[in-house]
Specification:
Layout (H helix, E strand, L loop, with lengths): L1 E6 L4 E10 L2 E11 L1 H4 L7 H19 L13 H10 L4 H12 L8 E4 L6 H18 L3
Parallel strand pairs: 1-4
Antiparallel strand pairs: 1-2, 2-3
Helix pairs in contact: 2-4, 2-5, 3-5
Length: 143
Amino acid sequence: MKILAIETSCDDTCIALASQKDDGFIIEKEIISSQIKIHQKWGGVYPTVAKREHQKNIVPIIKKILKNEKESKKSSFPNKKLTKIETFLAKDSLLKKRLLSFLNNSAKPKIDLIAVTKGPGLEPCLWVGVNTAKSLSYFWTVP
């Protein structure tokens, strides 16, 4: 079993690929995109800036982590799935643009589950991860 894990609760965009082994799980790959330097000038995390950075970083990191996890054949997805995702992301135009482009141009990866941090954390940041997970789950038909 492979799990794509998404974490956007504060100022780091983190994506991991884990697999079940014996009695537990192991992290096969992980990528962390830190925002520390961006927030230093304010002396702490500025939520709207953190959200914007998650929106910019999440899709490139997902692409990178899933680079060698493609299924053997390219799947075709109905346009109605893309339309539904547009409604999920209606209030998030930057994420919508990046995520729809990614989904439209990539194959379904070999993953069995998608996990996402739903809290605690900064609400604007959490929504980027939750909406990304929700969209990927729906599009790829992965719980």
